[in-house]
Amino acid sequence: MFVFFPSNPTLNLQAEDDSAELSVSELLERANSNLIRSDNDPILTGGDIAIGSEDERNADPCTSRGCMWGKNADGKVYVPYYITNHFSDREKAIITRGLESFSSFSCIRFRPSRSSDRDWLSIESQKGGCLYHGTVQHELLHALGFNHEQTRSDRDNHIKVLLQNVQSGMQHNFNKIATLNQGTPYDYNSVMQYHKYAFSKNNQPTMVPIPNANVSFGNAKEMSRNDKARLNTLYKCCECQHEHVIQNKYTCTHVFNIEFGPNPPLCCFTVTEEAFSDVLTDDQRLPDQQKMQP
């Protein structure tokens, strides 16, 4: 589970077992249902979001009140973290891989915390079974300000919630939130979308997609393209960092491989081929008919 506070949010990750075939949402629900909680523990909402009180929520949609992680002068967003000593080397490697994955498609950079940091993530271990690459990404997205897909403000246009099938006391997990959707469509494949039987009391679906009830959803094992696009938009990862960048007129092309490696981010701008004519190799050049147009 994850709690987002202004100072030191805690990310509790449970050890990996034999559940590699389950989706992220299935892993999280099963893991957190096994938690033994005390009266002093924070409230758990959405199955995996811990909050200190009903008045505290993660960053979406309170960005206007400074709930986002700040951007550095170099255009990167550095998020300090601390991994407790409860994890094995293998488990720490899984967590580190999840942390580092964000640098391949966004301006987010997770770094070890320092004594001077006011805010940081505390990654802790509890019993359960959610220490996988996809679940690490899911919880880190909460830390960065994102809620579950099924809580989107426009969700009623895309899924129907069947509260009659929801466990008693769990109905609040399906409340809608005034989310910032960053101009992206509802995403059945989002790593933040819970599966159709989430919190079911009778093995019947608690959510069905509409208008096509046969659409598969809630099966993600890692972040989708829309997850990445929303992250980049929320944190303005595509702001102009190069004199040749042209904003808001083009879409991204593989030219970004030059600066961002093999996985170019989903951005709000691109550069022209001419701007990099002196560094492009022949196999990187676009045929004339594929060059971007305003």
UniProtKB/TrEMBL annotation:
One of its GO terms (molecular function) is metalloendopeptidase activity. Binds 1 zinc ion per subunit. PANTHER family: DISCOIDIN, CUB, EGF, LAMININ , AND ZINC METALLOPROTEASE DOMAIN CONTAINING, METALLOENDOPEPTIDASE. The keyword Zinc applies. The active site is at E139. It comes from Perca fluviatilis (European perch). Zn(2+) binds at H138, H142, H148. Gene3D superfamilies: Collagenase (Catalytic Domain). This is Metalloendopeptidase. Residues 58-239 form the Peptidase M12A domain. GO terms for biological process: proteolysis. It comes from the Eukaryota. Its cofactor is Zn(2+). It is an enzyme of class 3 (hydrolase). Its EC number is 3.4.24.-. Keywords: Hydrolase, Metal-binding, Metalloprotease, Protease, Zinc.
